[in-house]
């Protein structure tokens, strides 16, 4: 039965297709192959979502060896949220990216480029479904290595130092995670996440575990670009090829947040007293700083892609703020925002890809008058911007609504949090408005009249994301149900 | 004496910090990679140290061996072999990037690259 193999397909299929894509004789065949594989992974993710919603968690024994001795693939509601985000972002980025990839990457290198893309897709999916702490490390490194290759292909030389910085910080983050896993293994003798959770209760001497929790959390915070460990991220997104920015902005930091929540709730949460207090004190303060400072820096940024990168620092803050409330409402709000923010930021980078393709650059000066020459692209940018701000009827509003509701349960502290959310949202109004002002109220630069609307193959996926934003703003039941289930799983283990 | 007995872990901590210090302070991209390698080597040492069992021998079971032999734990060695492969790939990719940076900027000093980008 193929259905029994669904949990491993999102990893196996792109992993095996990657070398084949590298051997493709020309760029179009490689592109078609990558897009088909990515769409297949998305279809599998949808099928898994249906199965998991109906019958709960699926555990799959790789090679028939039972856990905890064999490698376990585990798919629950939290995994499928991540899988949907990863495969959806990859598919939309590939389908819409044909024109911008052709413009930014030499055709003879494209088959290799798509091979790296498929490896990244396989590894991100692997992070989402792995039930084993060391497998997560390996997948994290494969995804990062493939990601470095993708970013280094950026259109100008500034991509290279940006990639180098990402490589150094990413490796340090992953190494910290590896130290943490090693210390946990030292005390428990197991690497399986469920088994780690079960055995930590019997560990008599907890100091190595405390150290392990610190290493894992900080290491993943580097990978997740949590303020103040975010310095690699704005440049990595801004200098990458446009299509890569769509893919990575939607899933690279979220994958790290995903692993962080799994570890801190499912493994360390139940192991020692007060872990929840420590986790929420550290993460909540970092989240608040990120929300305020990330958004404030975004206001002063003239390169719109870098601006979106700094805005992501703030948005990661929202996700962690929800998680650090350690309540059902808070954690589900965080997971909902993981889903919604991937959709919003992926869409915004998609719009930027179209603008860069036609205007030749992504600074505010390049965007002058774009509202007139490229009305459909700018229209989508504005609607996604409204979603980022959190306007009612958009997905961004749903995130903030759940976040504020969860904050209200916290009493006085909650009022402070709501104030921070409001201030950060107002700053988002300012930085989105700066783009709107330049695009709609300034006349195009000389010679810009020949600029035309983006190709249809970019506009259709872009507007699909916009409509998805409105749809999930009107009827958020799918992400909310999944997120509530995911939060239940996380909190159940944390007790 | 317990402090001395745990000397591998002291070496691990010191190497880790030396590596991290080099990564943070050296402006030269190649030296940063060397620092990163020292940093990773420290972690290999941590894993190799934890698999040692007192009086344990290499985890190879010869045909017809006695039942009461104590073996060291082979799992951390396998894990760290994987991590070494990951480390090599990262170093190779990093060095390739350094070559590309040198071709594009004519220098591999981080401060010069940053100031060239600022002037652009």
Automatic annotation (TrEMBL), chain B:
It comes from Iodidimonas gelatinilytica. Signal peptide: none annotated. Keywords: Cell membrane, Membrane, Transmembrane, Transmembrane helix. InterPro entries: CPA3_antiporter_subunitC, NUOK/Mnh_C1-like. The keyword Electron transport does not apply. The chain crosses the membrane at residues 6-24, 33-50, 78-99. It is found in: Cell membrane. Belongs to the CPA3 antiporters (TC 2.A.63) subunit C family. This is Na+/H+ antiporter subunit C. PANTHER family: ANTIPORTER SUBUNIT MNHC2-RELATED (PTHR34583). GO terms for cellular component: plasma membrane. The keyword Membrane applies. It is a multi-pass membrane protein.
